[in-house]
Amino acid sequence: MKTWFLDFWREREEVLKRTNQLRLRPPQLKRLLGDSSLRTELKNGRLASLLPPVGTEVFRSFTPASLQDITGRHEAKETERQERTNKDVRNVEKELQTQATHLEAGKPLPYILGDPPPELLNCPLEELDPFYQSEKTFIVLSEGNVLHRFNAESSCFLLSPFSGLRTFAIRILVHSWFRLFIMVTILTNCGVMMMSDLPTLSRTAEFVFSAVYMFEVIIKILSRGLCVGRLTFLRDLWNWLDLVVVITAFLPEFLDLGKFSVLRTIPRALKIIAVYPGVKSSAGALVQSVKRLAGVIIMTVLVISVLAVIGQQLFFGALRHKCVLMLLHSNWTYNDLSSYHDNGTVSSDFDFHKFINSHENQFHVSGQLDPPQCGNGSGSGVCPHGYVCLRTDTNPNHGRTNFDSFGSSLLSVFRLMTHDTWDHLLEQMMRSAGPFSLIFLLFVFFVGFFVLVLVLAGVAMALVEQEKAGVTEAKRTEEEFLHILDVMKKKEEEEEEPQDHQRLSPPCCVSVWTWNCCGCWRWIKLRINSFVMNPFFDLVIVTFLILNCVLMAMKHYPMTMEFEGWFAVTSLVFTGIFTVEMLLRLVAVDPYGYFRVGWNVFDSLIVVLSLVELGLADHEGVTGAGSDLMRVLRLARWWSTFHLLMKIIWTSVWALRNLTLILLTMVFIFTIVGVQLFQEDYSDHVCRIAVDCLLPRWHMNNLFQAFVLIFRILCGEWIESMFDCMEVSSPSVCSIFFIMVLVIGHLLVLNLFLVLLLSLVGEDLVTPKEKIKNNPMIAVDQIKTGVSWTRNWILEHIWTLVGKKNPIIPHHKVVNRKEDNKKDNLGLTSVTSVTSDQPLSESRALGSNHGLGFPVADTELELHMPEKEEEEQNDEDNETPRNNTPEACCCDSCYRFCPFLDIDTSQGSGRVWSNFRRVCFSIAQHKYFDAFIIFIILLSSAALVLEDVHLQQRQLVQMLLNRADQVFTFIFLLEMLLKWIALGCRKYFTSVWCWLDFLILAVSLMSLTLGMLGYSELGAGLSLRTLRALRPLRALSRFQGLRLVLNTLGATCPSMWDAMLVCLLVWHIFSVLGVNLFAGKFYFCFNESGGQFLPEEVNNKSDCLLLIHENFSDVRWKNTKLHFDNMAAGYWSLLQVATFNGWLEVIYSAVDARQIESQPVYESNVYKYIYFISFIIIGCFFTSNLFITLFIKSLDQLRHKFGGKHLFMTDEQQNFSISVKKLFSTKRQSVPRPLNQCQARLFDLVTQLSFEVVMVLVICLNMVTLMVETDEQSEGKEKVLFYIHFVFIIIFLTEFLLKIIALRQHYYCDCLNVLDFVVIFTSIVGLFIPDIMESHFIHTKILPVLRLARITRIIHLVPYTRGIRRMFLAFVMSLPALFNICLLLFLLMFTFSVFGMLSFAHVKRTAMVNDMFNFETFLNSMICMFTVTAMAGWDRVLSPILNTPRDCDPDRGDCVHPTVGLVFFTSYITLSLLLVVLLYTTVVMETLNMYDTETPSDKDLQMFYKTWRRFDPDTSQIIPYSQLSDFCDALQDPLRIPKPNRIQLVHMDLPLLPGDEIHCVDVLTALTARISGEGGQTDTLTARMEERFTINNVSKMSYEPISSTLKRKQEEVAATVIQKAYRKHLLKDGGADEITAEPAGGAAAV
Fold this sequence. Notes:
By secondary structure, the protein is mainly alpha-helical. It contains 64 helices and twelve strands. The protein has a three-stranded antiparallel sheet, with helices on one face. Helix 1 runs parallel beside helix 18 (about 435-490), helix 20 runs antiparallel to helix 21 (about 560-595) and helix 23 (about 625-630) runs antiparallel to helix 40. It is globular.
């Protein structure tokens, strides 16, 4: 699995970092400007060509003489250009492409030009770019050497470049203070726009702002001109924004804009982007990335539209069915009720239509606004007794959620794809249409997954395309800089340039901050310095910091007085410790040295803050938590991963400030626009969405609430707020606004996330070259060394006292013989596995059986099997070794302590035992035995599925399951005993998979034992029966794909665990802060029968207890299930906020909270939203970025470690992936033109592109006719649509007949034609015999869906879809990896579903646990776990599990221990989230790699040939193998392999010719296979290369290879191994003298 994408970004970071450091010293720059011979040699360089002639000043003032010279050159150039136009147009085109990129406007000057004199800043200067020296332009350099270019023509035909007024305007325009003034004005204007309650001030300020913007436009026009000529005001699109601002400023004086006043707001806020060039360029890059996403956008819109039509056809009117109170009137029957909607009339005066649509007559569930749906089909929702399911006129969510029209269906599908409360919609669909709606949902999710991958890959590739030009330019700049330095060195000829070696003298005030007053003080300072610099000092400080974190975690509510006193004293102790630490460090290195270290400054600030908090401890509101939380951040000083997280935050704030500022600007614009559009509507029509006519929590009636709502939309929740907006305001305006916020906001967030992710790929902390140990790590190593030495010393004296020989050799390295043999065998098999026909396992067996020990050679490190691959191979050998020699049963220590176990296997009973073990061994390793065990595992897993809540009523099934459980356990016991005998206990228990089988079997045996003893219904018995749900995990070791995924996840565990600890530490900070803010404040007085009391009724806990004391039994003083009373509860609440499930309840409780033990008040403090917004940004966005960064880094390291091998595919799956690529890349054979003249003409017709375009247009029109269908359409409309569909059938039938006549049997060679035939056949049959089709074959609703499949023909016509087809190919190629990951995810879901069914089947039906979502059956349990996997609604599934006995009845068994539920959901969410991230990462990386898998073009072959000629001047087609490394490094991308490349060249396995030479075609074929996969078209490339040599009059050379690069390397390794083994053998025999006298070439002799 190649990751060129990460390699490119890593290279980008390194190149840009080096380029930014390129500088010429003043003497070098002086010599470059004055040495004519040096300039002559550098005349072809791009940068050197920008210098003026020798003896000429670089920076020259722009004078009238300069303008005359420019005019002359301009006229001469125009004359020459006119003459060339008639001769050669290409020369003119090439001439237009010679503009210097280093001297573009807005960029700083290149280093080669040096710094201009200060007096020339902000003054007109002559052009530096040779391209513009014949154009009428001049430049101005502002502060920072930023270049500005102006038109030399007269501004507005009045002001010449030398006019004082224009010069003054230019000075103002380029000055940094002018830009700062404009920025301050814009920010002030934005602030005034937020003060809508001060209309007088706003109107006065509006005139001031308008005047400033007008002044800015006038300055720009005076300095640049209006529109005539290049570089004028209107030639810059950003200046049009200024013009719009000025125009809209005066529109309100003449027109009443009303809500259209937002047209004034948007341009002014966008000026924030236009003020600074960096932000402006970032915005331009974003616009360009959107252009590059045109194909993805078209594909997304098309896919959503098709899915909307499918949903429209499948669920017409489905959500209108509700449970209506059954009539008791005798004149009405059920048939009358169900058919009333069709005939519409009855003979009674009773208004049945009004009755069924009355809100009071419909069944409602408490706590829900809309009545639940129902259905009359199998598996749909069932009405309670006394109600009947009827179709009404209303849909859920104010009638907005439905599939009755294309617009509503489109909105619902878009809601499903964005995963916004999709669990509610799924429940509604399942209740009304049955479980098959889940299939539609899965299809939407699958398509949504593919679309999201397309968007991610598209955005990432757009970023790469934007950066490629910059990286290429940086590389060229660096190469030219090195070339300049090289030429200078040659010219100097050992002459040293004068350099300024003067040391910077410290400031005069340094002596005040360096305390060296006397010798005694210096002695004390030296001793303190030694103490502070000791590694153990830092280790002690880290220990205290960790203890401080533990102390903060102990705070809870309620706390006793004694605990509060102990807590306060301990906090004082920690404050004193860290204060003493600061003083010691201050004394040790002096204040001057102390405050030069950033971490010391941070530490001192924390200490000062702690002391200030101590001084203000008596004041109300000062808790001291601020300094305690800041102390946690100190751990980043010694914890590299935590430091990386802080670096990520800093990078997003500073390094990516432009992109961050754009995102904040867009959030501000949406906030202001939302307030201006909907503020009055929410105030005037709030009664439409609230019964009490109070504003809901999410509205846009004021600025802060609008900002919070925009943030919620960016978090992915938008549909509910949009429904409310559509009720109070215009539905079209609301839908456009919300969808724009969703799309634009997520696109900006995605860009920021990816840029932040990729910008850290090349950093040292992400890919460290060498892990440097810090002081705490050094101290820990010293402690380990001391403990090890002490242990050895104690053991040595113990053995001495006992009188036995010490088995530990002192002062020598303890050698693990097992590991040594392991390495020896590995070194041998690395050679023999390829050079011989003997299997790898046999080679290892021989090595172990015969005791051959060969040490690993140093040169072998390049070829040895990676560690994880070695472990995997060892596991496979442990399970199914291919030799027939079982290993020893027990370990060596067992034989040493129990000698009777070591029997002679060559005779007697020992021989019988050995033969018996061989037989067992043969059985255990047989493939049929493995297949049988897999079959039993599947049967046992299927048996667990049947143990649902209905098992007690099916006694026969229960009896069969009990017997089957005993049989399965017995079979698994026999399997374990068989493997014990065959493999031996030592080898069995060294395998992780065998341990897993052993533990699962142990659980089953204990469960059966307790059942036989009659304790199965007790707590322990029930727990063990529940743990039988782990039995499906035995399948993990039986499938190689699952093992690959698990091994990869296991290899990434160290870095993931480190990232997880950092995330937990960040959450620890927010949890502590939450405890300090909200502990004890979420309690409320609740009436079981009437709901929550108002604050006017019950103000605090005392009032509530008073009611309870007055015998109000239904009154309770209760806490919310999500709170911050302690650290554990805080973590759980933050998890709900992080997953956006149940987070609103937490936020509502926090916003309503007042004081401890006070009754909550509705939105008492809305600014507490800031706490949760900060957590989502820091605790979710940045930590997830850290997690994914380290995850990708781990995968990338594994990829390099495995030599580029795919981490999630087996060899067979990789072959399948390559075959798929060949299939897609192979062009279809052209259909032969028929000989019959009539058929030939038809053939020409149907094969024309215009014919295909016409048919695609017809298909699109057919799709449009499906879109216009609605639920309740008139009969006339139905007839018109019927005839239209009939016309389409005739058209498609005609197309089929034309193609079948013209193409003959070749018609069925195209899958699209086969699809057309199926659609036509089913449409015609359904047209004439619809009843038979619907009852026996296919439902009539499916036919339109089949017709929509024809829309795929548009992919071949749209030019934007080439990239999409490539992405689709990558998606298909990654399907094996997806299968492995999804199979593991399914196995995880299956296991947890069974566990949930066995544990939570009797949970009380509340919240989301109802008749559709529950754990009573396996299917329902799987649906629940599916919703949890998609991070939707799991909080409402968990809520009933957390019920306490007051809310549930233990006697009925519907109470579950909350800890079980918390552990269950936390573990599943963590594991499933990891697999989902792995799923997305794999597909996205595979998609990105497809952009680097192209066959070399003719240009690449030309480059290869030219480079080959440099190494092969005689055109012999061969070069020495020693030059291959230099040759591959000299190539250009995509064929280039930069140095160091020795290992990669060896793994390419190139054939070696006599004399250690290689052939050009072999090299080209290997390089092509490297970039395009093993399925490259080698024959075509060989023919093209041979053609290239033939063109150059070179005959083809034919050689027979005698070896290969890989084989040669293995021979060298083998020789080294044999040589070392021979030396080791001589050392054992005392032949050291012979070794000394042995020549260096002895290995070859051996």
